[in-house]
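Entry 14. Ran structure prediction on the chain below.
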Amino acid sequence: MGDLVYRLFLGWVKVAAAGPNVESLISHLAAMGFRLWGLSKSEVPISFYATLSAVPAMLEYGQSHDLTLALLNKGGFPIEWDRSRHRPFLWVGFLTAVVLVIYTLSRVWVIDAITPNLPQAARQQIITVAQDSGLKVGILRKQLDLPKIRAAMAKALPQYSWIGITIEGVVASIQVVVLVPRPHPHIYAKMVANAPGRITKILVYMGDPEVRVGDTVKVGQTLIRGAVSAPMPLPAEGSNAPREETISTPAEGDVWADVGHVRTVFQPFRQPDRKLTGKRFVQQFIWVQDLAPWQYAGYGAIPFAHYVEHRFVHPLRFKGVNLPMKMLKIVYNETTTSFYRLSAKNALAQATTRATDELARSVEKLGPIRHKTRRVRWTAKGVWVTVIWIVNQNIAVPKDPN
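Output, structure tokens:
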């Protein structure tokens, strides 16, 4: 490594030598203490590398011994310095590059919220608030007042208990701790029905029931009330003391009822059949934060009357941090549409399946299904199917008196 640095700073030259007893030149230079390397004996003439300081002695020896010397290449700091004096624009470019590097590395160019498991909307809100608070893209690092920025962000984002900002190179990383509020006391004045149905079971933990098993209730009707009347001991003769005392308690309990859930769908006989033709049209954009996307490819109107559209968004990242820009690609695939006719049997099956699937998703976690009913109505254009499920579910929900 030291020898390489020595050659680069003192300069080097590649020489081709030919003539009688050319090997004596190598011996002469080595005896004078010059550094030689890369000797190639298989070539005619022979070639080797030497330091620039060996050139005068080399030329003198070649003239006195009838040798032909050719300087094939040269390099090192002395050579580059000599070249640069005749190329002033090279220094201008070098200094410009140095200035650009200093300018770039002294500023913040990337702002990212790096807290794990944070929704994308929350990340974007944090970055926007940080920019509004003074942490802007392109700002000098030495101009940043991080305590002031954190204080402004904490005031604008009360949902976080702590906000931290770290600056590493051109990247500003923001971390937050979500504020977990203390839950409200679980005290409600009454429990009401959130769905209409027929009561099948009542469990009262605190309070007084307002309904009985077998009653039919409607939405919002009180099921359990938190005020319980208790009998008092008989008062003394002539006393005006009340015979009952009302004690205010929370309302707690579960009330199960059979609730009807209905889904109605229409399935037409005439069905469209869309197929891809294989032709497509692509538009590409650069999307910078909240600015409108800038299109750089795929100009012109979409050349298809019928098509399906697919969007692909690729975030740009630098050292694991999301940059404030994305690549947006929109692909339009041309389609053709034809129509075919469903049989009555197939139309009924498809309508029933759609209604059943929709109903199953809506009542999945409510409770057991007690009864299922299907109603069918045919028309000239298709079939209407109504699916009714009776679900036994807990309909008691708390209602705050305020």
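Residues 113 and 253 are 44 Å apart (CA to CA). Will compare against last week's run tomorrow.
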